Amino acid sequence: MPKHSKVTQREQSTEHVTESVADLLALEEPVDYRQSVLNVAGENWNKQQDVDDTGEDRPAWNNKLQYILAQIGYSVGLGNVWRFPYLCQKNGGGAYLVPYLVLLILIGIPLFFLELAVGQRIRRGSIGVWNYVCPRLGGIGFASCLVCLFVGLYYNVIIGWSIFYFFKSFQYPLPWSECPVIRNGTVATVEPECDKSSATTYFWYRDALDISDSINESGGLNWRMTLCLLAAWSIVGLAMIKGIQSSGKVMYFSSLFPYVVLICFLVRGLLLRGAIDGILHMFTPKLDKMLDLQVWREAATQVFFALGLGFGGVIAFSSYNKQDNNCHFDAALVSFINFFTSILATLVVFAVLGFKANVMNEKCVVENAEKILGYLNTDVLSHALIPPQVNFSHLTAKDYTEMYGVIKTVKKDHFDKLGLDPCLLEDELNKSVQGTGLAFIAFTEAMTHFPASPFWSVMFFLMLINLGLGSMIGTMAGITTPIIDMFKVRKEALTVGCCIFAFFVGLIFVQRSGNYFVNMFDDYSATLPLTLVVILENIAVAWIYGTKKFMQELTEMLGFRPYRFYFYTWKYISPICMAGLMTASVIQLAVSPPGYNAWIREEAAEKYLYYPKWAMGVLVSLIILATLPLPVVFILRQFHLVSDGSNALSVTYKKGRIMKDISNLEDNDETRFILSKVPSETPSPMPTHRSYLGPGSTSPMEMSSVANGRYSSGYLTATTPESEL
């Protein structure tokens, strides 16, 4: 060894000596980086112990079932119960299932597998994962956290609504089964707003929300909904307070209970009169709809949100897995269960809607039959127009349709003045009820006709609470996990702080105009930002990190090579489909000015209103704020205004101790291959950036291990990311 080398100086001096990694490597004998680590004390290296040490005491799932239930609870949410059935009804029944299934295979499963794989491989939340894959696109993780925050703010309000209805269900008759009566002395009249609409609609808009006529009218806080929102955030906070160990146990109930309720509802629904009409309507395809691009756009959006892509929750949950977990199987299983749940929920919804449509159709027949009897008694209509088999005391829908046709033909010149309705069952089945209206209006109205209606109401809203809770736990994990990984804060304090902050911000959703803000956030705060986030995730892995390199690492991690189908979908098909979806969304936003359905009290009806200028400002601000981290982080790291976390380190020696000192060395410095044995000192949790040479190839750094005196150094296998750079 040279006389004046820094290593010689180190042996002869007690002073700190810092030397570059290039100097260190020049003095090293060739080593096998797969079988050695930086050895300070000279003790023998135990591979299993080192792998165990790399865990950094990171929480882990108690078992595989708990993890699968958590992913199912997160991906299967309220959208499966009301949005999927609504889109299926709106877009042609069975014809909608075809584009949905095609896009699930081309977009959903590959991107879901991608997020599971990067989370499990790198074992970090969304911020840490994308900082590693491509530091300049590290804003993806921050954008995901912001979108999770926006979605969590209004999503928990829906859980609050469900809590309100849940407690209102413990009475008979149900409070929304009849219109309230106003008594003025001896005179009793039905509430005009309820009389013009329906009992369930009135209860939802007036009793539950006490909604204002427009978004401009705040109306103050609804104190009952405020308490329900506080209860909702308390439940979420308690479920999250101890991390995945507690939330995983919650998942045993919250993930499985909705299936019990849905199956019970399906069995009960199929026994209802007219249920088969709803089921047939669901599976009767309108083939012309399959050629409509709008149907494909809405199917792609539903696939995108059904699996929770881009939120960071999928990555957060998978980051607690072991390295050898078969995430490929998990992706296929969870995607299938998600699709099965959507179909199951749709069967339940259409069975109930078929029953409701028959009830409403019979009501229509009775009301119009009374009109016809009045016209017969006043000689406006002749008795000769009534078919002989018609019996007004037992009038069927078929008899009424025949009578209606005869009257319309004979009295075609004056028919409109009679004010008769056709009372067609198909028309009732085609009445689309979207989102909250399906759960809090259509379903509640149907349940009033069920025997033992309070029991079914309690079960239904308890199911909604559980579905919402499962999704909220995943959404909160998408916020807390990356922050805990990056800033090393206490998860209990962070969870409590997030819940308190979210509750106070969420007060805008429990004022009398709060429902309009819920619709705004639901429609615009996540769609465009999340689409952009997932496109960049796909590009970061497939085009920047490298699809071949990623496939090779998956082969090492899983023990088998994933199908080439994923190679082509990640590299070509999914980015193109997602770009098309984003373009279509932007065009729709430009062509159709944003608006909302306002409930007008005097008219007792919904009216479509455009957002005022200040609301448009809020809407645009939500989109900009959610996407802002993407360009900001890119610029900061492109021009080296902040460290991207991939810089090298120098090593300082003193009397047999070794200490690392981060320094801004060149990107291609050899130090990116120096790996630490002590996980807590590791500057990055990810595998080494080694060039991919294809399957079966040998890295030029794979050399035989040779002892190197007291201070031996080498490279650790990429299967232990917690201790790698």
UniProtKB/TrEMBL annotation:
Originating species: Podarcis lilfordi (Lilford's wall lizard)
Family, per entry: Belongs to the sodium:neurotransmitter symporter (SNF) (TC 2.A.22) family.
A Gene Ontology BP annotation from the UniProt entry: glycine transport
Matching PROSITE patterns: NA_NEUROTRAN_SYMP_1 (PS00610), NA_NEUROTRAN_SYMP_2 (PS00754), NA_NEUROTRAN_SYMP_3 (PS50267)
Protein's cellular compartments: Membrane
Positions of the UniProt region annotated as Disordered: 678-704
Membrane-topology descriptor: Multi-pass membrane protein
Protein name according to UniProt: Transporter
CDD domains named among the record's database cross-references: SLC6sbd_NTT4 (cd11521)
Keyword Transmembrane: yes
GO molecular function, one term: metal ion binding
InterPro entries recorded: Na/ntran_symport, SNS_sf
Transmembrane segments: 67-85, 97-118, 139-167, 223-244, 256-276, 299-320, 332-353, 455-481, 493-512, 524-545, 565-591, 611-636
UniProtKB keywords: Membrane, Metal-binding, Sodium, Symport, Transmembrane, Transmembrane helix, Transport
Positions with a binding annotation for Na(+): 73, 76, 80, 338, 467, 471
One of the record's GO cellular component terms: membrane
Keyword hit for NADP: no
Residue ranges the record marks as coiled coil: none
